[in-house]
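Pipeline run #58 for the internal structure catalog. This entry was flagged by the ingest filter as a single-chain record with no existing model, so it goes straight to prediction. Upstream metadata was stripped on purpose; only the residue string is passed forward. Reviewer on rotation: M.T. Logging verbosity set to normal.
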Amino acid sequence: MSTYAVTPAAIEAAVRAAVGDKVKALSTTFDQVELQVSAANWLDVAQVLRDAAGCQFEQLIDLCGVDYSEYGAGLYEGPRFAVVVQLMSIALNQRLRVKLFLDSDDFPILSSVAGVWSSASWLEREAFDLYGIVFEGHTDLRRILTDYGFIGHPFRKDFPLSGHVEMRYDAEQARVVYQPVSIEPREITPRIIREEHYGDLH
């Protein structure tokens, strides 16, 4: 068992050898190796990354959605949604980030890897709840953070800051009721007042 992290170049070589022609992009930034593969190949690649001798990424430590709709001040023209996965190999003391751009902006879908890494189950539910990304093959894909009956996906860039509905307890009805949001949308710009020599060192 390794007692030190292998170099990014060695991780890249091992991943490229294991994944082969399914690699869309493979690079290192700030000592973090990132692999891009197509959404269609994700399930097969996930199993390879877990089992291949030079990879052995036996733990999925994070999975999240990304909405690129406002990326680059509106100049970005690629797919709107992506899923980013962080993998770790305890046996080889190495990490890998996998980025998967999803084919549809209207109905983002990706194969579930909860059968490959059980830790993916709750994280895929979070990405479904917050971004509306559907994980095909997930055995219990339902909301996990928002309330019952919640409308929309709150981490999407086009979701209103105040939401769509609000809930409150109604004492007369002795139950929780839902109603349209009563908060007026507004933008608050803080006023900064500083003394004349604020921050001077002398």
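catalog note: The longest helix spans residues 8-19.
catalog note: The beta strands are 25-29, 32-36, 59-67, 81-89, 94-101, 109-111, 134-136, 165-170, 175-180.
status: ready for reviewer M.T.
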